C-alpha cells in the first residue's frame, strides 16, 4: 500500500483536493498569518505565550539509575529553543523502577530529582538565551508522570515485565512469558508513589504534572478495565478511581502544583501485521470490551459514540479543577498507525492501512468535538507532524476556527527543533529538516538504541548507534 507524499502537493488547493480524495476530513488556511499562532492564551492565571506545545517524547537515553544523560539534556535544550511556550511534560518519567518502559527511561525519585531539576533549568536557560532574559515569563513547563504497566521493561536486559490492569484476550498473547495483574493494594501504593513524585516535581521547579492516561500504559489501561474485579474495575466510577485518587493526593500534598491530563481520547482494536505487510485488525470491534472510547474503524466511525465515556471523564476532570487536556489516541504498541500517523512503519509496526492523513484528520476531529462538549477546558491537539509542509496551514486553521486551543508537536521537533520559531517568525520552512515520518526515532529505541532523529539530525546520523541502526535495518 503506498500513499502520495505530502511534499508532492505544491499548492493549498492541490493538497485540499487530495484530502478530499483520500477521505481526510480536514481543511487548511491558504495563506499564513503568524499572528494567529503567536497569540498568547491565558487561563486561570497561567499565561502561555503562543499556540505551540512540545509533546512529551520518551527517551531511551537516561542512565540506568534514571538520571538524564547529555543526550537527554540536548533534547530538552532543543525543546527550549523551539519557541513553543508550552512544554507538556518533556517526556514520560516513571514514578517507580518497575514502571519504566525501558532501562534508560527517566525515573523520578529523591535521588534523581536534582538532576531532573537541572534538566528543566537547561530547557529554560536555552529558551532565555535565544528569546531574551524574561522570555520564560510565559513559558509553562511540566513533567509527565507515568507507570508503564503492561509495557514495563525496567531491567538492564530490557526484557518485558508487564504489570497489567487486567487480563487481555489479545494483548496477553504478545507476552509469552506471562503477564502479572496488579492487585488493588498495589494500586493503592502506586497512587502514593505518584503523589510523592508530584511533590518532587514541584520541588524541582515544574509548574504542572501530567498524570499520563494514554497509549496503553497503566493509567490508560485502567480506564478500560471493565472486567477487572474490585475497587479499580467495572463501572466508570471504579475505572477512574486511580486517576481521581492521584489527583486528590496531589491536591492535598502539593496544592500549588497544577495537574493536567494527557488522554487517549479514542482507541481502536489491536492491529497486527498481515502477510503483505499491511496492518489488519486482530479482532472485530463488535463486542470488544477492552478499549476506552472504542471507535469502530470498519464501520461508519461514529466518533460521537466513541467519545461518550471520554467526555464523561473530561467533565469529571473539570470538576476536579483540571484545566489543561492534551488529546491523543490509541497506542504505539497495538495500533501505531492510529496513534502517530506515518508513511514508514517502525520495525515492529506495519504499513498503514489508510492514508496517514486520515489518521491526522481523526485526531483533529476528536479534539474539536471534545472542545465543543467541554468548552471550559483548554485543549492541546496531537499528531500534526505528518502534515509536513502543510502543518502550519492546518495548525493555523484549527486554532483560528477554534477546533483546538494549542497545537502539539512531537516528531517534527525531534527532526526540526526550530520549527515553531520559524513558523511564528513567518520564515520559510527549512525543507531538509522537515520530519518525513521515517519512524527511526521509534525503531531505534525498540532495537535498544538511543532515541533521536537518525535520518535528519546529523548528530544521530553520525552517532555510533546510527551505524548500528543502519546495519540492523539492512539485515
Ligand atoms: C520517539 C517518541 C517517543 C514518544 N514518547 C512519548 C511519551 O513519553 N509520552 C507521551 O505521552 N507520548 C509520547 N510519544 C507520542 C508523541 O507525544 C505524539 O503524540 C506523537 O508522536 C504524535 O505526534 P506527532 O505527529 O507530532 O509526532 C512519543 C512519540 C515518539 C515519536
Ligand atoms: S526519525 Fe526523524 S524523520 Fe523519522 S519520524 Fe522520527 S523525527 Fe521524523
CATH class of the largest domain: Alpha Beta
- DSSP, total strands: 15
Name the helicity range.
Answer: 25-40%
Can you name the CATH architecture of the largest domain?
Answer: Alpha-Beta Barrel
Structural notes for this entry:
- With 475 residues, the protein is an alpha/beta fold.
- The protein has 2 domains: 6-437, Aldolase class I (TIM Barrel, Alpha-Beta Barrel), CATH 3.20.20.70; 438-475, no CATH class.
- The chain has helices at 12-22, 34-38, 70-81, 113-131, 184-203, 218-223, 236-239, 241-253, 303-306, 308-319, 336-339, 356-373, 391-400, 411-415, 419-424, 440-446, 458-461, 464-474, and strands spanning 41-43, 46-48, 52-54, 86-87, 92-94, 140-146, 163-164, 180-181, 208-211, 258-264, 271-273, 279-281, 324-328, 378-381, 406-409.
- The strands form 4 sheets. The chain has an 8-stranded parallel barrel, surrounded by 4 helices. It has a two-stranded antiparallel ribbon with strand order 1-2.
- The chain is globular, with a radius of gyration of 21 Å.
- The model has no long low-confidence stretch (mean pLDDT 97).
- The structure holds flavin mononucleotide and iron/sulfur cluster.
- Residues 411, 414-415, 435-441, 453-456 line the site of iron/sulfur cluster (SF4).
Amino acid at each position: 500500500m503506498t500513499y502520495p507524499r505530502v511534499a508532492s502537493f505544491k499548492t493549498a488547493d492541490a493538497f485540499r483536493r487530495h484530502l478530499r480524495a483520500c477521505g481526510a476530513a480536514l481543511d487548511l488556511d491558504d495563506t499564513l498569518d503568524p499572528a494567529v499562532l503567536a497569540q498568547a492564551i491565558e487561563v486561570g492565571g497561567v499565561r502561555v505565550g503562543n499556540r505551540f506545545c512540545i509533546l512529551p517524547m520518551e527517551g531511551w537515553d537516561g542512565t540506568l539509575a534514571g538520571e538524564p544523560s547529555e543526550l537527554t539534556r540536548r533534547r530538552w535544550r532543543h525543546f527550549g529553543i523551539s519557541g513553543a511556550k508550552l512544554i507538556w511534560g518533556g517526556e514520560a518519567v516513571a514514578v517507580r523502577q518497575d514502571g519504566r518502559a525501558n532501562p534508560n527511561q527517566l525515573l523520578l525519585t529523591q535521588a534523581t530529582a536534582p538532576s531532573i531539576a537541572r534538566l528543566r533549568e537547561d530547557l529554560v536557560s536555552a529558551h532565555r538565551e535565544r528569546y531574551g532574559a524574561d522570555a520564560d515569563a510565559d513559558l509553562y513547563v511540566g513533567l509527565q508522570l507515568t507507570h508503564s504497566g503492561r509495557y514495563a521493561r525496567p531491567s538492564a536486559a530490557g526484557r518485558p515485565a508487564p504489570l497489567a490492569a487486567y487480563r487481555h484476550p489479545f494483548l496477553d498473547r504478545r507476552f509469552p512469558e506471562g503477564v502479572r495483574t496488579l492487585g488493588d493494594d498495589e494500586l493503592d501504593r502506586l497512587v502514593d508513589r505518584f503523589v510523592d513524585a508530584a511533590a518532587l516535581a514541584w520541588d524541582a521547579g515544574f509548574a504542572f504534572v501530567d498524570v499520563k492516561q494514554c497509549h496503553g500504559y497503566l493509567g490508560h489501561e485502567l480506564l478500560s478495565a471493565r472486567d477487572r474485579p474490585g475497587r479499580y474495575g467495572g463501572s466508570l466510577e471504579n475505572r477512574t478511581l486511580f486517576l481521581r485518587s492521584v489527583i486528590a493526593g496531589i491536591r492535598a500534598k502539593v496544592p500549588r502544583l497544577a495537574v493536567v491530563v494527557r488522554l487517549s481520547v479514542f482507541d481502536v482494536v489491536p492491529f497486527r501485521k498481515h502477510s503483505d505487510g499491511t496492518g489488519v485488525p486482530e479482532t472485530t470491534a463488535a463486542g470488544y470490551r477492552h478499549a476506552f472510547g472504542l471507535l469502530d474503524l470498519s464501520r461508519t466511525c461514529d466518533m460521537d459514540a466513541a467519545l461518550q465515556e471520554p467526555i464523561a471523564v473530561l467533565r469529571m476532570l473539570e470538576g476536579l479543577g483540571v484545566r489543561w487536556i492534551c488529546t491523543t489516541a490509541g497506542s504505539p504498541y497495538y495500533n501505531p498507525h492510529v496513534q502517530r500517523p506515518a508513511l514508514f512503519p517502525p520495525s515492529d509496526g506495519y504499513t498503514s492501512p489508510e492514508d496517514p492523513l486520515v489518521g491526522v484528520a481523526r485526531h483533529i476531529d476528536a479534539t474539536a468535538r471534545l472542545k465543543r462538549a467541554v468548552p471550559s477546558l483548554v485543549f492541546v491537539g496531537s499528531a500534526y507532524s505528518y502534515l509536513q509542509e502543510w502543518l502550519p496551514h492546518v495548525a493555523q486553521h484549527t486554532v483560528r476556527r477554534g477546533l483546538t486551543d494549542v497545537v502539539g508537536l512531537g516528531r517534527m521537533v525531534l527532526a526540526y527543533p526550530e520549527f515553531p520559531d520559524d513558523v511564528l517568525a513567518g520564515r520559510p520552512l527549512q525543507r531538509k529538516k522537515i520530519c518525513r515520518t521515517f519512524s527511526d526515532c521509534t525503531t531505534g529505541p525498540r532495537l535498544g538504541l538511543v532515541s533521536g532523529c537518525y535520518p535528519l539530525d546529523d548528530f544521530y546520523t553520525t552517532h555510533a548507534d546510527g551505524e548500528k541502526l543502519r546495519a540492523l535495518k539492512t539485515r
